[in-house]
Amino acid sequence: MTQPSTHPTRVAVLGASGRMGAAACAAVEDAPDLELVARIGREDDLESAVEAGAEVAIDLTVPSATAENVRRLVEHGIHAVVGTTGWTEESLAALRTQLADAPAVGVLIAPNFAIGAVLAMRFAEIAARYYDSAEIIEMHHENKLDAPSGTARHTAAAIARGRAEAGLGPVPDATEKDPDGARGAVVDGIHVHAVRQRGLVAHEVVQFGGEGEQFVLRHDSFDRISFMPGVLLGVREVAAHPGLTVGLDGYMDLG
After folding, report:
1. Radius of gyration for the chain, computed over Cα atoms and rounded to the nearest angstrom
2. Are the C-beta atoms of residues 134 and 159 closer than 8 Å to each other?
3. Model pTM score
4. Judging by DSSP bridges, how do beta strands 56-59 and 79-82 pair with one another?
5. Average pLDDT, whole number, for the chain?
6. Residue whose C-alpha is closest to residue 28's, from 45, 42, 17, 16
7. pLDDT tens digits for 154-198?
8. Which parts of the sequence belong to the Dihydrodipicolinate reductase N-terminal domain (predicted)?
9. For this structure, is 144 an active site residue?
10. For residues 223-232, average pLDDT
11. Is 234 annotated as a binding-site member?
C-alpha cells in the first residue's frame, strides 16, 4: 500500500466534460486526500495538467486520443490512471518501452473500474476450469465507441487462461454456417456478443455450461458512480506500482 502523504495528491482529469469525467471530478473533489488541480476537456491543452503540477492524471477520453495522452503524461513524469479502452498490443508495447525509460512512473489501464466487474472477471477465470462451454454477453449504452468492450476482452482472456490451466480444448460449437455473424466475435477462443442500447450503462453476463447445468456470472453498473471507488483506488495506488498494470485487479489482493 502507498504511504500516507503529507499533502493531498494533485490530480488532473482528462475528458472532464464527459459524464465519466464529471463523475471523476466530483469524486476527487470529495476525497480529503486528493486535490483536483485541472479539468481538461476536448479543446483544452494537456499542458495545463503539467502547469498545474498534477501528480496523477485520470484519462477518460476517447480511444483515438488516449495513447498519445498517456505518452505525453509519462514524458512529463505524471502517473496515469486510464479508463479509456481501444488499446492494442502494439500501443501497449510502445507504452512499456517508454516506461522502461521512466522507471518511477506508474500507469494503470483498467478495462473496468467497478469493483464488482473486477471480481466477476476473477471469478470467471476460476469457473472456466470446470465448464466445457463459456460465452460472454456485454451490454452498453448507445454512445460507446468500441465493441467488444474492454471488459469483455479482459474477461475472455481470463477465461482462456483458466481453460488453458485446466487443459481444456476449444469451446464446443458445431456451427458451420453463420453468414450474418450471429455467433458474435471470437476473442481468445471465447464468443463475445455486444449489445448497444439506449438506457444501459455497463453490463456483462458470463455464461458457463456443463452437462445438465448452467452457471451464470452477471455484473450491472446502473450509474457511473459505481466506477468511482475503483478510480480513486487507482489514483491512490498508481505511484506505488511503477511500470504498466493492466486491470484494476493488479492493485487488489485477489490471490
Report:
1. 19
2. yes
3. 0.84
4. parallel
5. 94
6. 16
7. 999 999 999 999 999 999 999 999 999 999 999 999 999 999 999
8. 10-113
9. yes
10. 95
11. no
d(CA 252, CA 181): 37
Q: Which domain holds residue 23?
A: 9-109+225-251
Pairing of strands 202-210, 213-221: antiparallel
Is pLDDT at 2 greater than 70 in this prediction? no
The annotation status of 110 as a binding-site residue, yes or no, is yes
Domain for residue 73, yes or no? yes
Q: Round to whole Å and give the CA distance between 128 and 19.
A: 34
Pair (218, 230) in one structural domain: no
Instruction: For residue 52, count other CB atoms closer than 10 A to its CB.
Output: 16
Whether residues 154 and 184 fall in one domain: yes
Q: pLDDT by residue (tens digit) across 112-164?
A: 999 999 999 999 999 999 999 999 999 999 999 889 998 999 999 999 999 99
The total number of structural domains that make up the chain: 2
Tell me the CATH number at 193: 3.30.360.10
Report whether 20 belongs to an annotated binding site.
Answer: yes
Catalytic residue chosen out of the listed positions 7, 79, 144, 219 = 144
CA distance 185 to 98: 32
Q: How far apart, in whole angstroms, are the C-alpha atoms of residue 206 and residue 120?
A: 9
Question: Is 228 assigned to a binding site?
Answer: no
CA gap 113, 219 in Å, rounded: 12
- Choose, from 79, 140, 191, 193, the residue flagged as catalytic: 140
- DSSP letters spanning 151-179: HHHHHHHHHHHHHHHTT--SPP------T
CATH number at residue 75: 3.40.50.720
* 205 and 148 belong to one structural domain: yes
